[in-house]
Design goal:
CATH class of the largest domain: Alpha Beta
CATH topology of the largest domain: FAD/NAD(P)-binding domain
Largest sheet: 6 strands, antiparallel, barrel
CATH superfamily of the largest domain: FAD/NAD(P)-binding domain
Helix content: 25-40%
Radius of gyration: 26 Å
Oligomer: single chain
Number of helices: 13
Bound molecules: flavin-adenine dinucleotide
Number of domains: 2
Length: 422
């Protein structure tokens, strides 16, 4: 049986190597870094949200682009099979809010160690500091169809940056995307694939924070708002509306709600700004909120405005709310007019911000775009252009929301590529 080379020792590459070897392949895993799984190490804030324990339908709903392409991969190696796989390697798992699955230990390093144990057990040869610079192919004659000669290429091996040539019958390309470059995801694989005739869909940062026009957001840095509703508009058109948790940073807004928004709003990346409102009290209608504020004001008639609203918001938010309300902070609440109070209610229900731009790749959890899935066989992950070339993981034009879904894409496509390459 011919040799299989896996390029990239990230989540997808390790999984692909393990399954290719489990199926009897002679596998060499090439990683340019000094160790495997550098990105995996920083996932889930160092805890690694490795998959999601939802049902398959829900899993697909969390995949934003090219979900149909993933059917075979997910049905071949589902989230439940991924969990079984890790438990077989001795990793105890736990499920948290939102069905997010983590190692019981809360250490991503344990996930990497589990993969390393599996790689060792099945005899995968690992070469670190091995930077691939080119994938080598030769032309093969496929036959004549409609008077046109169909020529195709097939894999012969790879060249490393030091010039060494390694022969192989199959290559699994799992070099990841181009976010968090320091982990090794420098987009090399896109160049290799492009050189072999593949289409690479435009790469954009996704699951990424936003900058805001309002520079005063830095006064709110570190403030996390739970149970708020965010609405994002282009002019009058509502583009995104979701309920959940967000975070203020020194440059703008982040947190789960905003990261998800970035995935949905990528198409506007070159068409900014977008306006955003935050409903700080989504559980109350304007009337209910007015009653509540009125009650607070009546109980504190002689207090100053800035002191009378303390129960309504987290302390950090109060000076900003006072400033945006245009009500004198020193004014006694009994002097506040009905119109002023109602404008204040509208501010609470529609706290305004202007999203000026997406942050860059070095802050993006994933890359949107990548190898066009039209040129890849969904049942095998094999290139339709080059025999013996397979793809796995984030290099493909697939992306999903947070919750463990992106790693599940890496596990499932890695499994299928490894299984098929043998
Ligand atoms: C901060 C952060 C947190 C995240 N948290 C989560 C989470 O909790 N849950 C989740 O599901 N997803 C999470 N993700 C996304 C997830 O990490 C990625 O989707 C996943 O790692 C992609 O795996 P991959 O194997 O395709 O690519 P990578 O993990 O990027 O691996 C690619 C590997 O290829 C190597 N390589 C590249 N070029 C070459 C070359 N020329 N020669 C040799 N080797 C090469 C790289 O060094 C790298 O090791 C997170 C991402 C980030 C940045």
């Amino acid at each position: 049986m011919g040799k299989i080379i896996v390029i990239g020792g990230g989540a997808a590459g390790m999984m692909a190597a393990i399954w290719a070897a489990r199926r009897g392949g002679q596998v060499l895993l090439l990683e340019k870094n000094e160790k495997l799984g550098k990105k995996l190490y920083i996932t889930g804030k160092g805890r690694c949200n490795l998959t999601n324990a939802c049902d398959t339908e829900e899993l697909f709903q969390n995949v934003l682009r090219n979900r149909k392409f993933l059917y075979s991969a997910i049905y071949s190696f589902s989230n439940w099979q991924a969990m079984d796989f890790f438990e077989e390697q001795g990793l105890t798992l736990k499920t948290e809010r939102g069905q997010r699955v983590f190692p019981q230990s809360d250490h991503s390093s344990d996930v990497i160690q589990a993969l390393q144990r599996a790689l060792k057990r099945v005899g995968v040869q690992i070469q670190l500091y091995a930077q691939v610079s080119e994938i080598l192919t030769e032309e093969i004659f496929m036959g004549v169809e409609h008077n046109q000669t169909e020529a195709k290429r097939r894999i012969t091996g790879v060249r490393l940056s030091d010039g060494t040539v390694l022969n192989a019958e199959s290559v699994i390309l799992a070099t990841g995307g181009c976010s968090y470059v320091s982990t090794g995801s420098t987009g090399d694989g896109y160049r290799f694939a492009r050189d072999l005739g593949h289409t690479v869909m435009e790469c954009l940062p996704s699951l990424v924070p936003f900058e805001t026009k309002e520079t005063w957001v830095k006064e709110l840095q570190g403030l996390s708002l739970r149970n708020v509703q965010v609405s994002i508009y282009k002019k009058e058109k509502l583009l995104y509306q979701e309920f959940g948790e967000m975070l203020f940073t020194h440059y703008g807004v982040s947190g789960p709600l905003m990261l998800s928004a970035s995935s949905v709003l990528n198409d506007y990346i070159k068409n900014m700004p977008l306006s955003m409102t935050i409903d700080l009290k989504p559980a109350l209608s304007e009337e209910q909120l007015d009653k509540r504020v009125l009650r607070d004001f009546q109980e504190n008639q002689n207090r100053q405005f800035k002191n009378a609203i303390q129960k309504l918001f987290p302390a950090k938010l109060i000076p900003v709310m006072v400033k945006l309300s245009n009500i004198d902070p020193e004014r006694r609440v009994c002097e506040i007019t009905k119109q002023e109070r109602q404008a204040f209610i509208r501010l609470i229900k529609g706290f305004p911000l202007m999203l000026s731009r997406f942050r860059e790749f070095n802050e993006a959890i994933i890359t949107r775009g990548g190898i066009s899935v039209r040129e890849v066989n969904p049942s095998t992950m094999e290139s339709k252009l080059v025999t013996g070339l397979y793809f796995a993981g984030e290099i493909l034009d697939l992306d999903a929301l947070t919750g463990g879904f992106n790693l599940q894409i890496a596990w499932s496509t890695g499994y299928l590529a490894g299984d098929s390459a043998v």
